[in-house]
Amino acid sequence: MPVIVVANPKGGVGKSTLSTNLAGYFASRGHGVLLGDIDRQQSARAWLNIRPPAATQIATWDISEDYIAKPPKGTTHVVLDTPAGLHGWRLNDVLKMADKVIVPLQPSIFDILATQDFLRRLAEEKSVRQGEIDVGIVGMRVDARTRSADQLHRFIEGLNLPVLSYLRDTQNYVQLAAHGLTLWDIAPSRVQRDIEQWQPIIDWVEGKPIPAPAVSAITMPPQS
């Protein structure tokens, strides 16, 4: 049962957008998926509460700082949304559960600087270095052809972590989230461009080979 953790200690970078849509993808493929949320704001849980009954089922994973419920029988995939400020023992506990970690990152200088230490911490983690946990980065609200994307590469170059994809800034995510829906709950023709951007992420979480240039090796300048 793969556990995919979506994490970044910086708030407002798109963790819940990634978590809910990833859970929606797994549900659309008929998997028994749990969506856990250890963020105090409980954004993912609130989103599940407005999800239409007719939509593919996504269950809630009862998880908090002090309690983790055993996944029910039939669960095949778990997606875990995490809070801003994740570090220390809480990060260690999350990594013990994780098979893969996705780090959403916006290309602004403030977001990059706020995430540098976290990325270094992940890259230096023994389980990551030994290949027990895979870590991938997703550029959020950015066009891969822009200078902003180049800036993201320059600042996180050197850690040997892949940039899986870039997700554009679109109201599709906002409007769907407001109704408890994901890209995979509506006609593909309405969100075709977004689904195409998600394909390298889906391939990565499913362990499929990702053709270049979908994945770019990135490095980060050494600390002074």
TrEMBL record:
Q: In which domain of life is the source organism classified?
A: Bacteria
Domain (CobQ/CobB/MinD/ParA nucleotide binding): give its ranges.
Answer: 4-182
Output the Gene3D superfamilies linked to this UniProt entry: P-loop containing nucleotide triphosphate hydrolases (3.40.50.300)
Q: Which InterPro entries match?
A: CobQ/CobB/MinD/ParA_Nub-bd_dom, DNA_Partitioning_ATPase, P-loop_NTPase
Q: Enumerate the Pfam families for this protein.
A: CbiA
Record's protein name: ParA family protein
Species this chain originates from:
Herbaspirillum rhizosphaerae
